[in-house]
Amino acid sequence: MKRYFIVTAMVIGLASLLVVGNMMSLASAQNLPKVKEFRIERSMPKEAVACIECHKIEHPGIFGDWAYSRHASANVTCYDCHKAESFDKDVSKEHYKQYERRDMKYGSKDYRVPVAAVVTPKDCSRCHPDEAKQYARSKHANTQYIIWQIDPWLKLGMNSDFERDTGCFHCHGTVLKMTKDGKLDPET
Prior knowledge:
This protein has helices at residues 2-30, 46-58, 60-67, 70-73, 78-82, 121-124, 129-136, 143-150, 152-157, 161-166. It is an all-alpha fold. The N and C termini lie far apart (88 Å). The mean pLDDT is 77.
């Protein structure tokens, strides 16, 4: 009888260890990052698919940043944010050269679309109109103008363009400019 009791206790103890071990492995598995897979789940224009597939090869870092973003999980593509009108000042002329490449599947005029590298609040307003209005009224949107009027040190103390460019303008209020050949001025 004693033997039966010992064997039963050992079986129950072993089963308890298995249950506790299984519960611990499930708890630790919940804390591990999930594997992010890139999937096209909605209907996208062929230009959007071309952007994604091209950037996946040509700029894997940019693609990776996007793939792990909230926009990607909502199926918002490069095309949705960077598409521009052909008459916009910030359209990338360099990007048009990509559509002349014969070494790529998407290197043809069929996929040509004007794009702007810089996404502005105006672009964001296409999907986020309320947030764009709120931002337009914020101090951050108007920092460049407010800061020179309020702070006497900035108004009177920073007398050179060098001080402004390396100081405030580095983060606040840089105005993008285009060069004569249609590229973004690297100084801005």
